[in-house]
Amino acid sequence: MFGCFVKQVCFFFIFFQMIIKKILIISFLCTVVNLSGTVHEEKTYAMNLPNEIVQALTNGDAKAISNYFNTSVELIFSEKQAVYGKAQAEQILKNFFTNNASANGKFSYKTLHTVNRDNAQVYIGELHTGKDSYRVTIYMKDQRIHQMRIESND
Q: What is the pLDDT of residues 58-78, one digit of tens each?
């Protein structure tokens, strides 16, 4: 009778060890898969606003910015907002730069905050023109600008 009890206890410990090993292996594999996804995400999605866009904002170059526009873009200027095609959005942005240019035609831009999630990024910055200071928010997805918001800092 005592021998049968010892066999049952030994069987229980062996069975318990097998379950623990399986749990550890599954946990390890899940961690590896999760880490590889994180590494992939960091390699795939930009953390900073592309230099071409920063340079275009500094130079007031609507054409260079429009190269990053999605086929349709939502432009928001204070209370006015609408969705435009690439060409029309470029023209509206060009008018903004023309109407707010400094004497030397240069602007100053600085990114203040960046949010990255999946394949979308939101960049929040300040644009200083010859006349005013503006808060610029750019929503990008798949390296394309889907929304651009320019609001006065007043």
A: 999 999 999 999 999 999 987
Residue 140: closest CA among 80, 59, 74, 64: 74
d(CA 135, CA 124): 7
In degrees to the nearest 10, what's the CA dihedral of 5, 9, 10, 12? 140
- Strand 120-128 versus strand 133-141 pairing type: antiparallel
What pTM did the predictor assign? 0.68
Phi, psi (deg, nearest 5) at residue 76:
-130, 120
Which H/E stretch holds residue 121? Answer: strand 120-128
Largest CA distance in the chain: 101
pLDDT, one tens digit per residue, over 96-134 is 999 888 777 789 999 999 999 888 999 999 999 877 899
Give the whole-angstrom CA distance, residue 136 versus residue 93: 12
Cα within 13 Å of Cα(48), Cβ side? 8
> Of the candidates 20, 30, 46, 26, which has an alpha carbon nearest to the alpha carbon of residue 117?
46
